[in-house]
């Protein structure tokens, strides 16, 4: 079972810890993030022990960090700048790797370039920066080929088996966005695909802030929290079969009210069958046998984010051709 990387805000700075979910033993990470202002950056994603950060206003990726070694790589500035919304506006980001090439990482950024895409909340361009063996971390390149231009949630995505997944939406004017499936991107193939949502979930009727993506038992997972007191958890058993979704859990939320003010995200299924959740204010385990939650000792008054974490002792210096961009 993997550990957890947990970050939170302490006096406007990042505080990173590694937690063993079995015994809650905690150790601090000597991360360069501790010198960054918490409110200036957003964590795009984590994979294989690395973190990707974007600046918080436009979510433009700026750093790849290795917290285990205290290193960070500054990403290049792309050709497309944020002068105004009609000259290119970044709409979504992703960070991942293919398990068959574990020392090659790719940062993906999606943006739209005309008013019609701005109105529809859809991207029409995509670029990649490759970090690692055989890649050029000094530049961005446009992805070749044609693909659909879906509306996606730019900040909610996961990495699973070499593919990035974003939630997709359709707009219900004037401002409401409704869940309408998923979009995936293959890290190695560099191509987009549409992914159907569970048909029983009644796609097109769920608000964007009430549906999340996760990974449980190695399966793509959809978490529906549209009910005030319950959450439903769906697992895709076979990604090769469109309708292989199974509702594995319906969970009554009996957590204290302070843990219900943020998104509740399942992190992993533990060896004893309990589900470990991040509540945004701490960690909690759920026992599906008796339906009880147990709030762990990890609690905070500021927002908390947790992801599965595996230590990575490979230096980012090997992935950087320009030593001046290393920190």
Structure notes:
Strands 3-2-1-24 form a four-stranded antiparallel β-sheet, with no helix packed on it. A four-stranded antiparallel β-sheet has the order 4-5-6-7, with no helix packed on it. It has a four-stranded antiparallel β-sheet with strand order 8-9-10-11. A hairpin with a 3-residue loop joins β13 and β14 (176-186). It has one helix at 115-120; strands at residues 3-10, 13-19, 26-28, 41-47, 50-55, 61-66, 71-74, 89-97, 104-112, 125-132, 141-142, 151-160, 163-172, 176-186, 192-195, 211-216, 219-224, 230-236, 245-252, 265-269, 275-278, 282-287, 292-299, 304-309. The protein is built from one helix and 24 strands. Helices cover 2% and strands 49% of the residues. It is an all-beta fold and 327 residues long. It is globular and about 55 Å long. Pfam families: FBA_3. This is F-box protein.
Strand content: over 45%
Mind telling me the C-alpha Rg? 19 Å
**Helix content class:** under 10%
- Give the number of DSSP strands: 24
Give the helices and strands as they follow along the chain: EEEEEEEEEHEEEEEEEEEEEEEEE
Main β-sheet, spatial strand arrangement: 3-2-1-24
Q: Give me the oligomer status.
A: single chain
Domain F-box associated beta-propeller type: 39-278
Organism: Acorus calamus (Sweet flag)
Protein name: F-box protein
Pfam family, one: FBA_3
């Amino acid at each position: 079972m993997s550990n957890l990387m947990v970050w939170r805000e302490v006096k406007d700075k990042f505080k990173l810890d590694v937690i063993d979910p079995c015994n809650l033993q905690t150790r601090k990470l000597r991360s360069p993030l501790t010198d960054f202002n918490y409110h200036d950056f957003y964590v795009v994603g984590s994979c294989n022990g690395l973190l990707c950060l974007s600046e918080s206003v436009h979510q433009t990726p700026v750093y790849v960090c290795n917290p285990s070694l205290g290193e960070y790589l500054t990403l290049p500035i792309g050709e497309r700048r944020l002068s105004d919304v009609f000259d290119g506006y970044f709409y979504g980001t992703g960070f991942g790797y293919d398990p068959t090439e574990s020392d090659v990482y790719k940062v993906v950024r999606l943006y739209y370039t005309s008013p019609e895409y701005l109105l529809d909340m859809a991207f029409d361009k995509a670029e990649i920066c490759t970090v690692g063996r055989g890649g050029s971390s000094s530049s961005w390149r446009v992805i070749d080929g044609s693909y659909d231009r879906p509306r996606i949630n730019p900040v909610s995505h996961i990495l699973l088996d070499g593919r990035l997944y974003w939630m997709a939406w359709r707009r219900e004017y004037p401002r409401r966005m409704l869940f309408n499936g998923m979009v995936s991107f293959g890290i190695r193939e560099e191509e987009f695909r549409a992914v159907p949502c569970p048909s029983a979930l009644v796609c097109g009727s769920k608000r964007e802030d009430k549906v999340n993506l996760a990974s449980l038992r190695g399966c793509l997972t959809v978490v529906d929290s549209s009910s005030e007191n319950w959450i439903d958890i769906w697992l895709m058993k076979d990604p090769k079969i469109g309708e292989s979704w199974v509702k594995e859990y319906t969970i009554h939320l009996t957590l204290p009210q302070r843990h219900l003010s943020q998104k509740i995200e399942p992190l992993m299924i533990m060896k004893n069958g309990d589900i470990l959740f991040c509540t945004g204010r701490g960690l909690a385990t759920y026992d599906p046998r008796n339906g009880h939650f147990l709030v762990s000792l990890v609690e905070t008054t500021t927002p908390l984010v947790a992801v599965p974490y595996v230590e990575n002792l490979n230096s980012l210096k090997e992935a950087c051709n320009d030593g001046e961009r290393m920190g």
